[in-house]
Specification:
Shape: flat
Strand order of the largest sheet: 1-5-7-8
Length: 358
């Protein structure tokens, strides 16, 4: 059989595999009450969102053949309306009427590219409460914001220890956990910590934390004619080998985390906006034009939670070459249904423990 035919068959099989995995995830928003509504995730070619007789009709895109794509229809005020609509590197069409309909129903529209970059958030109505914004600014002047950020980082370290619990025992793991525990004690016991000292503590914690990941093996199922880059046989370092940004992922882990962190950014930002706070006024992250400083601050304790979900997936699943594509620039690209699975997992991360943080 022609090699291209074999490759195409394997590609279709893996897309169908991850599509089934996503459906097995406790993610069906129609099984939840309105307060627990779930997002709809769109990917593939030929996706379409349109208004038909005052209802929202959503047709998911095609990712492989044969593939029966999902179709959703919603009436205004439907108790099972999605919490948001997430479009992952899809091609297709959407009308202005859809944007109006989503705005009326209060449903945000999120668009991600194939690298996990958050391209846009539509219908995310923002009307900050002047009193809360004043509290945010005053907390920076009084130092209360820095104290709150210390609590977030301590929470991040506790969650990091939980995530490391998923990994096999080793001396380097014990060393990392000991450092994180000592850092938690230091953050809670010291009356004041300068920004430089905080950066030092965070930096060392990150070094210890990710060092435990490096040698964790990945499981692959490859034919005699299939090859993967040498560094794909284990998790390896978090930072990409191309450029200075983790966005330019060359490894499956980094590519998956990019999607997960982009969705986490969106979820945290939606909560901050719903509270009536200004997402650009941070606790510790510097305020730069168009930068969501408060979002980045609040994301900190949830990053290791997301890490744990991705780690569990990688450690449990046997991957194939058809799960990923290497672009001409050398970047790693997830197949659409695997990206959809990662986004579905991240969307289930609870935000309740971050409410009402200044």
């Amino acid at each position: 059989m022609d090699q291209e035919v074999i490759d195409g068959h394997e590609w279709a099989q893996r897309l169908e595999y991850w599509a089934i995995k996503s459906r097995q995830n406790p993610f069906n928003h129609r099984n939840n009450k309105r307060r627990d509504r779930r997002p709809i995730i769109i990917c593939g070619h030929g996706a379409r969102l349109q208004i038909e007789r005052k209802t929202l009709l959503i047709q998911n895109g095609f990712t492989h053949f044969p593939h029966v794509r999902e179709i959703y229809r919603y009436f205004p005020g439907d108790p099972h309306l999605p919490s948001r609509i997430i479009i992952i590197d899809a091609s297709g069409s959407i009308s202005f009427a859809v944007l109006n309909w989503l705005a009326e129903q209060g449903i945000p529209l999120v668009k991600l590219d194939w690298q996990g970059n958050l391209l846009c958030i539509g219908n995310a109505a923002y009307s900050a409460d002047p009193k809360l914004v004043a509290v945010q600014r005053n907390s920076i002047k009084s130092g209360a914001a820095q104290q709150e950020f210390r609590k977030l980082i301590a929470e991040k370290f506790r969650n990091s220890i939980k995530t490391l619990g998923l990994l096999p025992k080793s001396p380097i793991k014990l060393e990392a956990i000991n450092y994180l525990n000592s850092a938690i004690i230091e953050l809670s016991s010291r009356k004041s910590i300068s920004s430089d000292q905080m950066l030092g503590i965070e930096g060392q914690a990150a070094v210890c934390y990710f060092a435990v990941w490096r040698e964790i093996p990945l499981k692959w199922k490859l034919s005699k004619k299939e090859f993967i880059p040498q560094d794909w046989d284990k998790i390896g370092p978090r930072r990409s080998a191309i450029g200075k940004s983790n966005r330019n992922a060359r490894h499956p882990l980094n590519a998956m985390l990019n999607y997960a962190y982009a969705l986490l950014h969106n979820q945290v930002k939606m909560q901050i906006i719903a509270e009536g706070r200004d997402p650009t006024i941070g606790l510790s992250h510097s305020q730069v034009k168009y930068r969501d400083a408060l979002v980045l601050d609040r994301m900190e304790p949830l990053r290791p939670v997301v890490d744990g979900l991705v780690l569990e997936l990688l450690m449990k699943e046997t991957l194939t070459r058809a799960d990923f594509t290497i672009t001409k620039e050398g970047f790693c690209r997830l197949n659409p249904q695997l990206a959809r699975k990662v986004v579905a997992m991240t969307s289930a991360v609870p935000m309740s423990n971050l409410k009402d943080r200044t």
